[in-house]
Amino acid sequence: MPMKTVLKQELDFSRRVGEISGETLSLCYQCGTCTASCPLGVPVRRLIRSSQLGLKDFTLANMDLWNCATCKLCEATCPRGVQITDILHALRVIGYEEKKSPKKLDEPLWGVYEDANPWGGKKGDRAKWAENLAVKDAEKTRAKYLLYVGCAASFDPRLQKIARSLASVLNQAGIDFGILGEKENCCGDVIYHIGEEGFLEELVQNNLKAFEKTGAEAVISISPHCFNMFKAIYPKYGKMIPAYHYTELLSEFMDRDLLPMVPSDSKLNITYHDPCYLGRYHGIYEGPRKILEGLPGASMAEMADNKSNALCCGGGGGQMWMESIGERPSHQRVLQAVDSGASILATSCPYCVQNFEDAAKTKGVQNLQVMDVAEIVAMTMKVK
Ligand code: SF4
Ligand code: SF4
To answer: 262-381 is classed in which CATH architecture?
Structure first.
């Protein structure tokens, strides 16, 4: 190939990465701090360097790109403010176009395409978690809040308990909310991380229409991953109603004395894990802690790494559908929870709950209960 053509192709590739990721690619001066801080061993510095040099085939051949959990820990340590996760996302978009994405990710992609969820559930079973609960159909009856349950809490039997707990708490607090039930579609988080931009756009446009049609004032999400999609990604595609993570609202309801607590002599020794998509992505650190601290009998302890330094559970960026081999960050995290002296490892993300429960089993950790904040609130309000 003539040298001129090679140079043009290289320039095109790095320019495209820059366009998709917001032009911070050139800021990297190759210090390597990101690679050293990555709990999943992603060779970030190398991926960025080969992108700067326009080495498309070399960069996309590095399948470690797909091991990134998009936790932003590397970004928190980068001295140059490089938007690393956006750059890795750009590489995934181009990788998907070039058919270089892992075959393993075809499963969730087809699941969302055929059944509106990546968990292998049937679309018609989506609202089964709400059986025997008084929950409005937001399409038929206008409600102030649209509770977006998300695929994990809709289909996984363990995680459905989070949805049931939150719905019970909201009912007990007298909050006017409804759900889309069987009509709820995946938020598109996994499609975003696979890099399938065309399908993502179609899905987001459909969801925007469905949300608007309900007439709800705001959408409340159970998963921080859905919350991030609604808050940061959906507005790029059209008009989006305000989006909240449920802990933001519970924290406000607590201030307004809308969460009636039942006095208790039981002690709750809790440590709180910050999900990456609430903490590092949206700076939500204090609200969940305030809710937990306000529960009768609660005492809080921090883990060694907390808030902006919190370790990732390893579940973001499509990792829930990838093979995980060897030591995982979630293994280290449950040991940190044990070291804190807590008996409850609280978090506010279905992926974290699932990964920490698995990690506790793998590491043989006893006497540590993994619970979502919504489940702990429901337990102390005695609504579940
Ligand atoms: S930490 Fe930032 S500047 Fe250093 S290699 Fe990574 S991206 Fe580049
Ligand atoms: S976002 Fe997290 S998993 Fe991805 S490269 Fe950075 S530190 Fe590693």
So the answer is: 3-Layer(aba) Sandwich (3.40)
